[in-house]
Structures are given as structure tokens and as C-alpha cells.
Write a structure and sequence with these properties.
heterodimer; A: 167 residues; 2 domains; two-stranded antiparallel sheet; 5 strands; 8% strand; B: 161 residues; mainly alpha; two-stranded antiparallel ribbon; L24e/L24_sf (chain A)
Chain lengths: 167, 161
């Protein structure tokens, strides 16, 4: 039966006449969309741990994984007789579902990226504070020396006041 | 790891031309992680004495799918890094085609259970859906297989026909 299969590694579509099918000696069938995916399989890599695969992105929460729009497309192992009305309805429904899914995926992405800008700013600021010597060596040196002077002065003042208290 | 240094340089084979090719060939395939997970779930593998295998096939490491010549060699192997690395891989959930398809947004169809009457005849065959023309011409959602949006729960619709 001709159907659009899905790659074992990257979950991409494998159209009839494309990709590679591997049948293991326990008669399990694996489909691969391109040699990159096939090679990853041969190297015994776990697709869940390869960063560019769909299963990685979904398992890490990078993409929307649970949603009701995923309930429509299914692997159905039963025949349906051709019906023109049904076909037209399905095509219309597919468009609608796709529209809703895209909107939800965009929303998911926005929500995921909401705090990123603030976080990056904080990280950058922290990095500058930590490596101030690299950015402005003279300034940092100056500040250090003033700090030392101020600290010494403070210490002296404290000692003086303590001595006064004793008297 | 407690095994000291290996007898060879690290990544010694990395630059050898054809080394990778040799191990990637189907001819030299070793057992996949999912096969080994199944083996362990079955409770291990037992080999009958076979003079062609190392150690007669009596010292087999299930986790890495390798034969050893003696019990000592097998014990030494179980202290190595590749073995321990494999243990970690095996502890993870099995990766299946179903997960790959879930990544593409495709779920598996769940059909209602087959019901039978007192004589054992099937009342509803969930895998068989009469064509839309024979059921109702007005709403073809009855054969929910290909009209997803029209029927939010295709399985229930299929059961009602």
C-alpha cells in the first residue's frame, strides 16, 4: 500500500520511491529519508539524543508535543472506499486543522521565548562584571586601588572609634 | 573506572581509512539497543555449545551482545567503559517507530474492542467501516477514517455504524 512513511530518525516524510528501507534480521522494518539518517542509525545513535530530530525537540519541550490537533492524522490500517464528498470535506478539514495548529505552535514558541531577552541581558551583564578587566583594564585597576584605599580608611576609622570608646 | 589504562591509544582508529566503513557495513552489524532491551526483558539469552563461537558460546554478555572466551574475560569486560556506557543506554526507554511518528504529529489509531453476541458472532467490527454511501449520504463523518475534523472521536463514530 502506498503511503507517506515517516523517517525512523528525524520523523520527516518519506514519499514513495524515496529514501532507504532497512529490514533487520528480526524482520523489523526501518525507513530513512536520507543517508544522514541512515548513517545515524548505523552508528546506533538514539534519535532522542540527536539535536536536529523531531523526537529530541519534542522530548525536550522545544516544540509543542501534546495537542488535540495531533489527534487527526493517524496511521489507519483499514480501507475506506473512495467518496468524493468525503474527500472534499477532508481536504477542507485539513486546511482548518493546519491553520489552528500553526497558530498554536506560534503561541507555544512565543511563550517559550518570553523571558529569553531578559535572561540574556542578565547573563551578559554578569559576564561583563566578572570579566571587567578584559573590557576596561585601567578602569578596573583604578577601582581596585580606590577600593583598597577606602577599605583601609574605613578600617582605620573603625579602630579609632573603638579606641575612643575604650577611653 | 578502575581498569587502568587501555593497551592502546585513545581514538587510535579515528584516522584509519575504512575502519568506520567496516563496522557500518550490514555484514558486520551487531545487535541494536532495542533488541538487547528485548533480550533482557525475556530474561537473557542461552546458547548451546557451539565450537564456532568464542568460548563455545558459553560466556555471552547480553548487554553488549558479545561472546567471550572465558568467565574471567567476561568478568573483566564487565568492568570496562563500553560495558558501563551500554548499561546507561539500556536503562533508557526504548525508542520506537511510534515515537518517531509522534514527533511528526501522528498518533496511533485506537479502535474500540470487538464485541460478540452469545453465539460468538461479531457485533461490531471496528476495523471494517462501510463506505459513506451505504451508511448516510448526508454526513460522511460516519466513516470517520478520513474525515478527521468532522468527527473529534473517530473511534466512537466507527463503533456506532
Amino acid at each position: 500500500m502506498v503511503r507517506i512513511e515517516h523517517c525512523f530518525v528525524c520523523s520527516g516524510p518519506v514519499y514513495p520511491g524515496h529514501g532507504i528501507t532497512f529490514v533487520r534480521n528480526d524482520s523489523k522494518v526501518f525507513k530513512f529519508c536520507r543517508s544522514k539518517c541512515h548513517k545515524s542509525f548505523k552508528l546506533k545513535r538514539n534519535p532522542r539524543k540527536i539535536k536536529w530530530t523531531k523526537s529530541y525537540r519534542k522530548s525536550r519541550g522545544k516544540e509543542m508535543a501534546v495537542d488535540s490537533t495531533f489527534d487527526f492524522e493517524k496511521r489507519r490500517n483499514r480501507p475506506v472506499k473512495y467518496d468524493r464528498d468525503l474527500m472534499m470535506q477532508t481536504l477542507e478539514a485539513m486546511k482548518k486543522v493546519e491553520k489552528i495548529r500553526t497558530a498554536r505552535e506560534e503561541r507555544f514558541y512565543r511563550r517559550r521565548m518570553r523571558d529569553v531577552k531578559q535572561l540574556e541581558k542578565t547573563r551578559a551583564r554578569n559576564e561583563i562584571v566578572r570579566n571587567i578587566d578584559l573590557v576596561a583594564p585601567a578602569a578596573s585597576k583604578q577601582r581596585q586601588t580606590t577600593n583598597v584605599v577606602e577599605k583601609a580608611q574605613a578600617k582605620l576609622d573603625k579602630a579609632k572609634s573603638a579606641a575612643m570608646d575604650v577611653q | 573506572m578502575g581498569t587502568g589504562s587501555y593497551g592502546r591509544k585513545k581514538r587510535a582508529t579515528a584516522k584509519k581509512k575504512g575502519f568506520k566503513k567496516y563496522f557500518l557495513a550490514t555484514k558486520h552489524r551487531t545487535r541494536d539497543v532495542d533488541q538487547i532491551q528485548d533480550d533482557i526483558a525475556k530474561g537473557g539469552v542461552n546458547f548451546e555449545y557451539d565450537p564456532d563461537l568464542p568460548g563455545g558460546g558459553q560466556f555471552y554478555c547480553v548487554e553488549t551482545g558479545r561472546h567471550f572466551i572465558s568467565a574471567d574475560a567476561l568478568a573483566a569486560h564487565k568492568k570496562t567503559k563500553p560495558y558501563k556506557k551500554r548499561l546507561k543506554e539500556l536503562a533508557e526507554e526504548q525508542y520506537t517507530q511510534a515515537e518517531a511518528e509522534a514527533g511528526a504529529g501522528i498518533m496511533k489509531e485506537k479502535l474500540p474492542p470487538i464485541r460478540r453476541d452469545a453465539d460468538g458472532n461479531i457485533i461490531n467490527n471496528p476495523t471494517f467501516v462501510p463506505s459513506a454511501a451505504t451508511t448516510t449520504s448526508s454526513s460522511s463523518s460516519a466513516s470517520a477514517a478520513a474525515a478527521p475534523a468532522a468527527a473529534p472521536a473517530p473511534s466512537t463514530a466507527a463503533a456506532s455504524t
